[in-house]
Amino acid sequence: MSEIAASPPAIPSAGAADAGGHVTATRRLLRRLRGIMAVSESAQERLDRIVRVIAAEMVAEVCSAYVMRAGEVLELFATEGLRPEAVHRTRLRVGEGLVGVIAASARPLALADAQSHPDFAYRPETGEEIYHSLMGVPILRGGRVLGVVVVQNRTPRHYTEDEVEVLQTIAMIVAELDASGELVNPLEMQESRGGVALPVRLEGIRLNPGLAVGPAVLHEPAVVIRQVVAEDVEAEQERLHQAVAAMQEAIEKLVDRTRGLWPGEHRDIIETYRMFAADRGWLGRIGDAVRSGLTAEAAVQKVRDETRGRMLQIADPYLRERLFDLEDLANRLLRYLTGQSPGLTAAELPSEFIVVAQTMGPAELLDYAHRRIKGLVLEEGSSTAHVAIVARAFDIPIVGRVGEATRQIETGDILIIDGDHGQVLIRPRADIQHSVAATVAARTRRRAFYESLRELPVVTRDGVEIKLLLNAGLLLDMAQLAPTGAEGVGLFRTEIPLLTRSAFPDVADQTDFYRRVYGQAEGRPIVFRTLDIGGDKVLPYLAHGAEDNPAMGWRAIRIGLDRPAMLRQQLRALIRAAAGLDLYVKFPMIAEVAELEEARRLLEKELARAAHEGREPPRAVKVGVMLEIPSLLWQLPALLKRVDFLSIGTNDLVQFLYACDRGNPRVADRYDLLSAPMLALFRQVVMECSAADTPLSMCGEMAGDPIEAMVLIALGFRTFSMAATAIGPVKTMIRSLDAGALARYVDEIGQRPEHSLRRWLEAYARDHAVSL
């Protein structure tokens, strides 16, 4: 990743890039191509002339231009060197042949011996068998692949990085020709996606829960670059300087505007975004492109498209988030260069709307968040994406990873987004719209009802007191303690803040963060779970090889015990942050008592270290375990003698108990939590914890489901930890429940050899007016 600067850097001077005449040659070629674009000929004639000029200037026997047609087919539109009869006849699907590979990857390819490449596809009508070396680049516009430009030579030739760079610059000019609609009728691409505006349901993943209905607004910079080749390079450099300065000043104001928000990771992300606006590497690449002869807008677009191409190849979540931020900045800078406002104006937006985007950076969301945005649909995204974290601060529902969203949704289409289930409905029937609007209104009323319960006791109709706690992982979550009336935090996921960082934080950073968590709790108890990393939560800066079964592999306490320095640093920070306060520490994924003993020894060493350093110790230290691995069930008596409390995490426990991968859609819902085996397991744990007088809590997703929590109360659970949005519904259920009567009913049906007891329990709730 490029260097981050705290203050805006100067873009290098033009003279520094002129070595070897590379820039001068590029400018000469661009001037020739600009002359071709200015001629009043058909698009096909101009493309024919372009490939001839490229072949001559780059000393290539062949130059060919392939253009994307409907159905993701690349058609040979123009060539210099291949047989003329192959034009408009040779076609390759995306991913087929070397040209198809370039289109699929959106990355350049340069080969000295192309025919030996495993993806080489021979087309006899082209006569290309006599050409050995090949260099190709994608034709990109707005992050989309419009085609491919290829040069070929008879002899093996090792193409240089400079030559690849020149061909990428040329491809921008071809992209403008393609985008004009003169080569391929735009209706062709629309019709290939279906010409009738029927209702469509798209699937995605939940990034932020909630339900919303409203017209779509496509989030696109919509900047038309009217001139690619610069007439005055120095003037373009000055325009770039001025636009960068204006953008950075506006970002400073945007950051200032967010300082009124409560503390949290969303604030940290916005501050980091400001630093990216001064990234030396990013600005330097744009400056280099201007010096090569491009206009400032074309230079930004070129770097933006190259960045997007790289992003498609990167799996690392941390790096992908930074690339999203840079693309966000490029969109913003393009608008400053063209004199447009960064984001749609109030006049351009409906009174209420849902934003649809391929990706979105945190600052772009802030542009909308101060208006009437109801929801967000993304083609990319993850639960730890910067935009998702910021959206939670504004309670905006988000559905992410919705493939083809920007292709299938048009501005003005009515959308329904179901953030709870990760679904988007496009152009729903009027009756469905009315039904969802009524549901949204009912939810609003329901939320107001839940808020009215905040000060009321959490007790069943027959007098059983229940403790409701909050699951948290961000400072943002801590702000929900007071509004929900939760008595504390039963599970603080300490790994969540680390997923968006570039390096493992030192003890001082961790201590500061945990102190802020304590400050937000205002005296309420907090149970900190030590790092549960690995599996589906891989830290980008921790070497972690591929595993066949990551959920059952090197993760959680196994990493902590194998990397004791990491675990000790976390424990040291927790001890320092808890000075004079109660410290509750919970170790995850314990499979045997020996692992707990080893973890406790590390904790004792850190307590001794704090005493030796003369630091104020915690007022009390309580140690617990997450019961997630079934093997621990057969060591419960020994375990309960060594812990101060026990928590059950149902997500992992269920998948291990049933040998059922919860990430596999074919089997994820095959087994029910309300089945006889699960109820028997819970009953056993409750009995043994009661006999040992060990506090027991449920902090898995089961705790936040009213009917499942209802059954757990019948089995003897009295402490639950859940998401903030679940507290209201669960509290309502508890206050309508007769726990003793339900316990007797569960005793009657608990041994039924059925797949699930859910229907029996739902019927009981209906018959006894239990609010679900």
Write the layout of secondary structure elements.
Blueprint: H1 22-38, H2 43-57, E1 62-69, E2 73-80, E3 91-93, H3 97-105, E4 109-111, E5 133-141, E6 144-153, H4 161-179, H5 186-192, E7 200-203, E8 205-208, E9 211-218, H6 233-258, H7 265-276, H8 280-291, H9 296-311, H10 317-337, E10 353-357, H11 362-369, E11 373-378, H12 386-394, E12 398-400, H13 405-408, E13 414-418, E14 423-426, H14 430-452, E15 467-472, H15 475-478, H16 481-484, E16 489-493, H17 507-521, E17 526-529, H18 557-562, H19 564-577, E18 582-587, H20 593-612, E19 620-627, H21 636-640, E20 645-648, H22 650-657, H23 676-692, E21 696-698, H24 706-715, E22 719-722, H25 724-735, H26 739-749, H27 758-767
Helix pairs in contact: 1-2, 1-4, 2-4, 6-7, 6-10, 7-12, 8-9, 9-10, 11-12, 14-25, 17-19, 19-20, 24-25, 24-26
What does this structure look like?
- This protein is α/β, with parallel strands linked by helices and 772 residues long.
- The strands form three sheets. An eight-stranded mixed β-sheet has the order 7-14-13-9-10-11-12-8. An eight-stranded parallel β-sheet has the order 21-20-19-18-17-16-15-22.
- α6 packs antiparallel against α7 (265-276) and α7 (265-276) packs across α12 (386-394).
- The longest helix has 26 residues, at 233-258.
- It is elongated, with a radius of gyration of 30 Å.
- Residues 1-20 and 193-197 have low confidence and may be disordered.
